[in-house]
Amino acid sequence: MLLENYVMKYHFYVMKPVFYVICCDIYVIELFFYVIVTLELEIVFLGGITFSWLKIRLQRAFL
């Protein structure tokens, strides 16, 4: 009984956060790839205009 209790607590406190972190990581990675692909496509299609706009946006973001 005590062991089962311990295992349940371990599962709840350790496995759930790990699961959420992995899910978040996958979600963030997918988002990241999506953004990169979108930006690459925009640069390919719109050329220098998008690139200069991106540079301005990035400079504003980091300042």
Which structural class best describes the helix and strand composition? mainly alpha
- Strand elements, count: 0
Helix and strand pattern: HH
Assembly category = single chain
Helix content: over 70%
Distance between the termini: 57 Å
What are the segments in which pLDDT stays under 50 over at least 5 consecutive residues? none
Number of helices: 2
Tell me the layout of helices and strands.
Elements: H1 2-46, H2 48-62
Keywords:
about 95% helix; about 60 residues; mainly alpha
Explained architecture:
- The protein has one domain.
- The protein has helices spanning 2-46, 48-62.
- The N and C termini lie far apart (57 Å).
- With 63 residues, it is mainly alpha-helical.
- The chain crosses the membrane at residues 12-29, 35-54.
- Keywords: Membrane, Transmembrane, Transmembrane helix.
Quick take:
With 63 residues, the protein is mostly helical. It contains two helices and no strands. The chain is elongated and about 65 Å long.
